[in-house]
Design brief:
about 325 residues; alpha/beta; binds S-adenosylmethionine
Length: about 325
């Protein structure tokens, strides 16, 4: 089975945002006082997420990422992951987390069938970490990373690079790949909340690479068929790898292979388009063929490209915690 959109892009990657709740308040993601949370009844239950996942896999989705909000704060997440992992035809089950709850959950996540983690970490300096996340939890996250390593759960570290805040830590993060068998990915800051001076925060992936090249000899690394949008490199002799993700400056959209389901059950085929389709009525009816047909229709209409670099950027400000980061 092969799921493609009207532009011939193969869509094989589904992201499920299972909650809009989070135990951090990252400055690039949420206002200090948080977002308007959905009521519990508005958030899909696990059965509904499973229906979507099964329909999507029947169409050709091969990889599912569970995210949020912070997915590990949702009660029952382990049982849900275990059921997701058993969907016949699903090749990869991965999860994005801020790592705070990993010390107690890493082993159980592995046992449930999660194959890899993306762990968000934007600073190795306690003060900057606390400023960026508005929480004093760096040591918990570092313990979480150690726990993932200990149980043998492969992981990538995602760092959102922001000029004048954490961009002086690029080399420290790159060094992690010399000491650990992990991938560190540098992500361009995105104007999801349309803050006035967002452009001043962006450090392009090109600049990140240039700065790394000034210190290290990096060689390009081959990426697998289900790889995301990162370009990947390695420092000579390092155990791990370095990636850059360039949603703003890069040629991102032409290779986009993903769709998202928000925690309230809307399909969003482009992060930076307001267009969403509410699957809830179909989920309540519970007919998997109708859900699959609607997913196919939504994929057909996936926009060719986001409009982030145009002045008329056609999306309303949002928090990634609502859509699923
Ligand atoms: N709570 C989990 C976590 O922290 O990894 C999952 C959800 S969180 C929204 C996932 C990731 O989205 C963030 O860590 C960050 O990498 C990305 N993200 C959110 N807002 C962003 C922004 N404005 N620019 C770039 N990346 C952003």
């Amino acid at each position: 089975m092969f799921l493609a959109d009207n532009f011939g892009r193969k869509i094989n990657y589904l992201r499920l945002s299972i909650t809009d709740r989070c135990n951090m308040r990252c400055v690039y993601c949420m206002p200090a006082d948080g977002i308007n949370k959905l009521g519990h009844a508005e958030i899909l239950n696990y059965e509904q997420f499973l229906l979507i996942a099964e329909a999507a896999v029947s169409l050709g989705i091969e990889k599912i990422r569970v995210t949020g909000g912070e997915p590990l704060v949702r009660t029952g997440v382990l049982g849900f992951l275990e059921r997701l992992a058993k969907i016949s035809g699903l090749k990869q089950l991965v999860l994005t987390t801020n790592g705070v709850l990993l010390p107690e959950m890493a082993q159980a996540l592995k046992d449930a069938g999660v194959q890899r983690l993306n762990i968000s970490l934007d600073s190795l300096q306690p003060e900057m970490f606390a400023r960026l996340t508005r929480r004093n939890l760096l040591s918990e996250v570092l313990s979480g990373i150690a726990a993932a390593e200990k149980v043998g759960l492969p992981y990538k570290i995602n760092m959102v690079v922001m000029r004048g805040l954490n961009d002086n830590e690029l080399l420290d993060f790159a060094r992690l790949t010399q000491e650990h068998n992990c991938t560190v990915r540098f992500i361009e800051y995105m104007p999801t909340m349309k803050d006035k001076d967002w452009r001043s925060l962006v450090v392009s992936s090109q600049e990140v690479l240039q700065r790394l090249h000034d210190h290290y000899r990096l060689h390009p690394v081959d990426r697998g068929a289900m790889a995301g949008p990162a370009e990947e490199f390695a420092i000579a002799g390092a155990q791990g790898q370095i990636g850059v993700i360039a949603p703003l400056s890069g040629h991102f959209c032409q290779d986009c292979n993903r769709i998202r389901i928000t925690s309230s059950g809307a399909v969003r085929t482009c992060l930076f388009s307001d267009h969403e389709f509410d699957l809830k009525p179909l989920l309540i009816a519970g007919n998997i063929d109708n859900i699959a047909s609607e997913l196919q229709r939504q994929v057909n209409d996936k926009p060719a490209c986001h409009t982030l670099n145009s002045n008329s950027s056609g999306y309303s400000p949002f928090s990634m915690a609502q859509i699923g980061g």
